[in-house]
Amino acid sequence: MLRSDAVTKGIQRSPNRAMLRAVGFGDSDFGKPILGIANGYSTITPCNVGLNDLAKRAEEAARQAGGMPQMFGTITVSDGISMGTEGMKYSLVSREVIADAIETACNGQSMDGVLAVGGCDKNMPGAMLAMARMNIPSVFVYGGTIKPGKLGGCDLTVVSAFEAVGQLTSGKIDEEQLTAVEKNACPGAGSCGGMFTANTMSAAIETMGLSLPYSSTMAAEDEEKADSAARSAEVLVEAVKANIRPLDLLTKEAFENAISVIMAVGGSTNAVLHLLAIARTAGVDLSIDDFERIRQRVPVICDLKPSGRYVTVDLHNAGGIPQVMKLLLDAGLLHGDCRTVEGKSLKELLADVPSEPPSGQDVIRPLSNPLYAKGHLAILKGNLASEGSVAKISGVKTPVLTGPARLFESEEDCLAAILDKKIQAGDVVVVRNEGPVGGPGMREMLAPTSAIVGQGLGDKVALITDGRFSGGTYGLVVGHVAPEAAVGGTIGLVQEGDSITVDADQLLLQLNVDDAELDRRRAGWSKPEPRYRNGILGKYARLVSSSSRGATTDHAD
To answer: Which end of the chain is more exposed for a tag (fewer CB within 10 A), N or C?
Structure first.
C-alpha cells in the first residue's frame, strides 16, 4: 500500500484523480509511487542557478524508473550576497522555511517519497529537517561545488574577495587588484568552493547515507553531477519499494560518523548547529559535547580552504568523501554497520575503496601524517558560555589569548571599527545581540573575520559572538556563544575593556570578572526590546531555541 493511495484510490477520489490527470497522470499511473522533487532552483545565487537542470534529469529518471514525479519549488537565501547586511538575518531562518515548505508540499499531497535538490548552505539542513520530520523515503541531491577562480596562478573562492577588502584597507593591495579578485573569484555555477558550509553539509549527508557516494564533492558544471542526480531518482524509487526511511538511517552512530568526517575534512562550524537540529528532529540524543568527544580522537587529514590550500574539486579528484571514510573506517573511527539509502552498509559501500590515499597528491593525508592531530571544531565552555560555544581552530598559530574586550552591539559596528584600524593585536572582539533571538537569525560574521585576516591580524586577535561564522571563516574565532545576550547570557554583561580569555587548549571561554561584580551587573540587566515584532523574523525570535540545541523552531526548549 502506498501513502499516495489516500488521493488516488477509490470512487470517492475521482475529483482528486481528475486534478492529477490535468498534470499528466494516465490510467496506469495511479498505482505508481508519487515522488516529490523539491527543487531549490533560483537565479539568486550561483549555488542554485544550475539546479533546475538537475531536477529535470531526476524527474525524467524517476518517471523511467516507475515513479510519478511531482516537482515543486523551495526558496533560498544567498549567504554570500546577503553577508554583512540586514538580509543575512534571513539566512538561518531560511533553513526553517525550506523544511516547512518541503514538509507542507509532501504531506499535503500525500507523496510517497521525496528527492530534494539544493545548493546554498541552508538548502541541505532544511531538506534534512523535513526528511526527518516526515520519515518518508528520501534522497538529497547536492547541486555541486563551484570550480575555483584563477588569478595569477592561484585558486580563488568568494572568501578571497572578502579578504581582499581587508587587504585593501591595510594597504596590501590597490583597488585594481581588488577588482581583479572580484571579477575572477566566482567563475560559474556551484556552491562556494572550499570546505565551507555547503560542502561540509553535503559531505555530512553523504556520510549519513542520504546522498549517493561521491556526489557531495562533484563540481556543479560537470556531467557526472547530472548523471548522479538521475541515479539518485532511481535509488529513491527503489527505496520506496524497500521502505527505506530516513529514521532508519539517521541513528546516533550515523551522526557520529558525520561528525568524524567533518573533523577529518576541516568542515564548517555551522555543521554543529545543523547536525544538532537534525538530530533533535530525528529524536537522536546528540549534544554539543559529542562534538568535543569525537574531536579528541579524529585528526584533520584534508588540507582544504579556508585555512588550507585546496578546494573541493581537488578533494573529489583525490577520492572524495568515500576515500576519507575508508581511512577512518580502517582506523576504527567510523561505524561501518550504518546503512545507506541504497540498502548497503558503509562497510559494503567502501569495500573497493583503497586503504591508502592516492599517491602524488597531498589533499588527503594518511592518518599517520595528519594536518592536525585533533579535530578543528573545539567546544569551549566557561562563564561566558555555560551551554557551550564553537571555536574553529584550524590554521590558528596562537590558540590561547587573553586580552581586553572590544565591545560591539552589531556586526556593522564591528566591521567599521576594523576597517578604520581601531582593532589592535591582542584585542578580543565581542559582537553580541546577534544570536538566534537577539539578531534575530544569528548572522554569520564573514566580513569582519575576513577583514581581520586581510589586515594580517588573523593570529593576533580573537573574535567571539553569539552569532555565527561563515564556513569560509578561519582564525581564533568563537561563535554560537550560549546562552546568548538577548536571553540573559553572560556575554550580555561584558563591558568595554574587560579581560577575556579564549583558550582552545583548555576549552575555556572566560570573562575575567569576579562573581560579585557579575551579580551586580546581572541585577542591572534588562532584556532588550525585540528588533522585530512582526513578519518572519518576529515569529522566528519568539519560537527559536538556543544555538546549543540547534536553533530550531519546532521544538520548545
So the answer is: N
Question: By the 8 A CB rule, do 504 and 400 touch?
Answer: yes
**What global pTM score does this model have?**
0.96
Q: d(Cα 200, Cα 262) in Å, to the nearest integer?
A: 7
User: Cα angle at 159 between 419 and 367, to 5 degrees?
Assistant: 125
Tens-place pLDDT, residues 104-145: 999 999 999 999 999 999 999 999 999 999 999 999 999 999
Location of C-alpha cell 505508481:
32
Strands (E), 490-537: 499-503, 508-511
Categorise residue 456: left if φ over 0, alpha if ψ from -120 to 50, beta otherwise: left
How buried is residue 294: exposed, middle or buried, by Cβ count under 10 Å (0-12/13-18/19+)?
buried
- Checking DSSP bridges between strand 34-39 and strand 68-73, what pairing results, if any? parallel
Quick one: DSSP state of residue 352? T
Please tell me the distance from the alpha carbon of residue 294 to that of residue 375, in angstroms, as a whole number.
8
For 112-178, give the secondary structure using H, E and C.
CEEEEEECCCCHHHHHHHHHHHHCCCEEEEECCECCCEEECCEEECHHHHHHHHHHHHCCCCCHHHH
DSSP state of 529: P
Report whether 129 contacts 277 (CB < 8 A).
Answer: yes
71 backbone dihedrals φ, ψ, rounded to 5°: -90, 140
Cα 78 from Cα 90, distance rounded (Å): 10
Grid coordinates representing 34 are 508519487
Instruction: Identify whether the C-beta of residue 163 lies closer than 8 Å to the C-beta of residue 395.
Output: no
For cell 553535503, what's the residue?
202
SS3 call for 340: coil
Question: Three cell numbers at 505?
Answer: 587548549
Whole-angstrom distance, CA of residue 308 vs CA of residue 301: 11
Q: Environment class of residue 146 by beta-carbon count within 10 Å: exposed (0-12), middle (13-18) or buried (19+)? A: buried
CA atoms within 13 A on the CB side of 203: 35
Residue 333 three-state SS:
coil
Q: Are strands 385-392 and 428-431 parallel, antiparallel or unpaired?
A: unpaired
Number of C-beta neighbours around residue 145 at 10 A: 33
- Residue 94 cell numbers, joined: 531560511
Using the predicted structure, report yes or no on whether residue 242 has a pLDDT greater than 80: yes
Residue 555 has pLDDT above 80, yes or no: no
C-alpha cell at 453: 585576516
Answer whether 198's CB lies under 8 Å from 119's CB.
Answer: yes
Asked whether residue 540 carries a pLDDT value surpassing 60, the answer given is: yes
Q: Which residues are catalytic?
A: 470
Q: Which helix (H) or strand (E) segment is 377 a member of?
A: strand 377-382
Q: Is 221 exposed, middle or buried (0-12, 13-18, 19+ CB in 10 A)?
A: middle
Secondary structure element (H or E) that encloses residue 354, with its range = none
